[in-house]
TrEMBL record:
InterPro entries: Glyco_trans_4-like_N (IPR028098)
Boundaries of every Glycosyltransferase subfamily 4-like N-terminal domain copy: 16-191
CDD domains with a match to the protein in the record: GT4_PimA-like
Domain of life per record: Bacteria
Gene3D superfamilies according to UniProt: Glycogen Phosphorylase B
Pfam families: Glyco_trans_1_4, Glyco_transf_4
Protein name: Glycosyltransferase family 4 protein
Amino acid sequence: MKLLYIIPEYPPHFGGGISTFYRDIIPEIADQGHQISIVVGSAFMSKLPSYVKDSVKVDFLDTDLVNFYSHKFSCYKTTPELQRHLAAAWAAWEYVKGGDGYDLVEVTDWGMLFAPWITSTNSPPTVVQLHASVGQIDFYDPQIDSRLQGSFVRLLEAGLLASADELQANSQSNAKAWQLLTNRNVHYIPPSLTLKNINIAPENPDLGNGLVVGRIQYWKGVTVLCEALRLLREQAPNIDWIGRDTVYFDSKSLMSRHLEQNYRDIWRSKILPLGTFSSEIIRQYQAHAKFIVVPSIWDVFNYTCVEGMAQGKVVLCSEGAGAVDLIHNGLNGLTFKANDSQSLATCLETVMSWSASKLREVGLIAKETVIKELDPRLIAQKRIRAYEDLITRGKYPMKPNQWLIDAVSPQQKLDRPLAFLDRLPLRDLVGYTINRSLRKVLKKM
């Protein structure tokens, strides 16, 4: 098969969850005799030099082309992120000539990269890989200044994805979520993990602090962990947190500032934010942690869970993270209820009570689980069979209605894209402009 992937990130330049997902599986599919091309691009990335590695050609989307298409979505000037997402999706579509010459195309839900492929009638069969859509992320971590965009994007996503040729998810929970939203079957195939990318933990680790790897972000469960440690009082373990800071709900301050104000007894005392590190250094921290915590309120998958398991670590995983599919509570890890600080506190008490031999025993079973369930060769074979089945079936017969198609298709550039402001009271506009200017001045002081 001749396969085309249009994705927002890919190694070695990016290290997010989508990048990790494709890092392991694409070379394996290529090794099994399939010709693969990749176009990397999204709304806010810069063009990088093309390269070829492991017989896979990787190109990067031309930002000038994205800027050109951005003008064709000037009607969304009030929602600039959506405007850029749709521009990038159509720029990628033009860049690859609508997939001409390929047997199958795979795109992601993030960035609405699927829009041109679902609305088209003559493109190759297309898989939409459900990693975490723009609308989903906004739903679980809403920002006060983007509610209009969040609601609109979710309506577009649900309507369009209901007509996708095929939907695939790498966790059971996300598959069920999109089945309910689209009334379509979602094909569940777990991700793969290449153990050569993991520094296997030493036989006698330092058994130091617990560890969380993830953004300091609400839906990553940082407040749940703070509450759980507060419940444990003097019995609370020390936990290192590796990851970058993010903006809090009101968009005016950072999440770490919110934690400092509301959890002074926990944040920087029991939870120690370490900042960000390279993948290699993160794996060293994972290798020497006493246990690993995944406190996510919601997560499509969460690779830090399976990376910890692969290193023979006991992982405490929230039922809100898709990787919980791999954990049998008490056998190869521990699980707790999502967004439930008492459940997490009980889980922490359990792991702290285990002896070193018990930690090694459970960690070894965890490692064996990853080796068996996420074997790249077997997962690649499952994906190849799914591709072949889709090519045989052909494109989904039902297309979105014309209203949806028009909403996500390029249009003539508007002469006055901000004309909607004419409908707002001048007093409100002037007052907001003055306050915004004052905030900018105060920031610089």
